[in-house]
Amino acid sequence: MVKAARVGVIILGRPLTQVFGDWIRSVRRYGTLYVAAYLFDLVRVRRAERAEGFDEQFGTDTATVVYPLNLPSVGHEDSSEVHAYEAAPAWLIREILGSIPLQPHRFVFVDMGSGKGRALLVASELPFAMIVGVELSPELHRIAEENIVRYRSASQQCTAFSLLCMNAAEYTFGPEPLVLFLFNPFGRDTIRSILAGLEASLNATPREAYVIYANPRFEALMRGAHFLRMVKKGGAWYRPWSRYVVYAASSQLAREG
Fold first, then answer.
1. Radius of gyration, CA atoms only, the chain
2. Distance in angstroms (rounded) separating the CA atoms of residues 226 and 89
3. Domain assignments of the chain as residue spans, ordered by start
4. What is the rounded distance in angstroms from the CA atom of residue 250 to the CA atom of residue 39?
5. Which 3 state secondary structure label does DSSP give 64?
6. Where are the beta strands (DSSP E) in the chain?
7. pLDDT score, position 76
């Protein structure tokens, strides 16, 4: 899908010069194996977003892959820990949340690495007590704030949002029952820190909690966490962006471990 325009050649909705520049910088940062992966991701995400039409339906800006190297505020961070932003498909979020037995207005939804806020908006279709987004990049954080204002849906059941611009590893969990959502947002060390914080919080204040990990690159960390128990998994191995696991967490399991 390439077309000519007065501003130059457009590929997948982006100027050719930008696509080429991002590709070169990505290969330099992530290695030669990223040569094919970069273009594959652009095509895959573009097609998926056009098919689902989430932003078109709600007038939001949650699509488009954003790489850390294009974010001045975080481009200098450790590349293995700061992953690119990609919106989780709305249908996938709905499928996962629909499988969890949530009591209305009791659970808090926490999206670590919330980016432009797609997961936050979809989660607001359920009766959560609060929806929290934690994002390191000020640029993506501001877009998420704008999306919260723009979003209007007849099915929205929660309008209590709290968006925090901070390092997710430093987030302190509240005392409420919670659903923690992760869509391949970080590297191994950050995931490990988040799990340690969650375990400490559950031990201090026993309550129900679920951990959702979509595109679970470091799932071994959760399998090795004695306070977590897998309750559901889905998706195909050859489509990692649609794979997910759901774990139940409890302070009781932590003490018995």
1. 18
2. 30
3. 2-52, 90-256
4. 41
5. coil
6. 2-5, 8-11, 14-15, 108-112, 130-135, 161-165, 178-183, 209-214, 228-234, 244-249
7. 65
Point out which residues pair with 133 in neighbouring strands.
Answer: 111, 163
In 3-27, which positions are buried (b, 16+ CB within 10 angstroms) versus exposed (e)? Answer: eeeeeeebbbebeeeebeebbeebe
Confidence of residue 210 (pLDDT cuts 50, 70, 90): very high
At 199, is the secondary structure helix, strand, or coil? Answer: helix
Separation between Cα atoms, residue 165 and residue 142, nearest integer Å: 9
Tokens 């071994």 belong to residue? 220
pLDDT band at 17 (very low <50, low <70, confident <90, very high): low
Number of other CB atoms surrounding residue 29 within 10 Å: 13
pLDDT above 90: residue 33: no
Q: Give me the residues paired with residue 192 across strands.
A: none
Q: Which two tokens stand for residue 226?
A: 């004695």
Report the CATH number of the 90-256 domain. Answer: 3.40.50.150
Contact status, residue 219 vs residue 157, Cβ threshold 8 Å = no
- Distance between CA atoms of 257 and 254, rounded to whole angstroms? 5
Question: CA nearest 107: which of 182, 230, 207, 197?
Answer: 207
Three-class SS of residue 117? coil
CA distance 196 to 185: 17
Residue 243, burial from CB neighbour count under 10 angstroms (0-12, 13-18, 19+): buried
- Buried/exposed code over 190-201 (b: 16+ C-beta within 10 A; e: otherwise): bbbbbbebbbeb
What pTM value is reported for the model? 0.82
**Do 109 and 179 contact (CB within 8 A), yes or no?**
yes
